[in-house]
Design brief:
Layout: H1 3-19, H2 34-52, H3 60-77, H4 85-99, E1 106-107, E2 110-111, H5 121-133
Antiparallel strand pairs: 1-2
């Protein structure tokens, strides 16, 4: 994966967070502050850049490990109480999808999530919430 590929993966993950119930996200707190939520949203980009900037591009396994840690951070932080039920369902789907990610899902710098499962109303509601809430 080249430098551009890693940037695409980081951007794709940020977009997926902005674009995405049950599973690991279902038990996430519902009382996070907006600042805590937005910080968790950006955790992977900041952590990934810190972790891999000096050592070079991550392997697929390292990237998946980073994404899993991001999912854990999202689930630990949870969502603000002003998030709609529909947006919360999109959040839970994202955290579940992250939890199920495997190294083989990384393909040429992006995730093989082209199955249309990210285009439902819950995912759009979550994307709108993130876009309108976080800088």
């Amino acid at each position: 994966m080249g430098r551009v590929g890693f940037a695409h993966v980081v951007a794709a993950c940020a977009v997926l967070l902005a674009a995405c119930g049950g599973g690991p996200g279902a038990g996430a707190p519902r009382d996070a502050s907006i600042d805590e939520f937005c910080e968790a949203k950006g955790w992977m980009v900041a952590e990934g850049m810190d972790r891999f900037f000096e050592s070079g591009l991550p392997s697929d396994d390292e990237l998946v490990d980073l994404v899993h840690e991001w999912g854990d951070e999202l689930a630990r932080t949870g969502t603000p109480d002003n998030m709609s039920a529909e947006a919360r369902a999109g959040f839970e789907k994202l955290v579940g999808r992250i939890d199920g990610l495997e190294s083989g899902d990384v393909d040429e710098g992006s995730f093989n999530w082209d199955d249309g499962a990210w285009e439902g109303e819950e995912e759009k509601s979550f994307a709108n919430y993130v876009t309108n809430t976080c800088p």
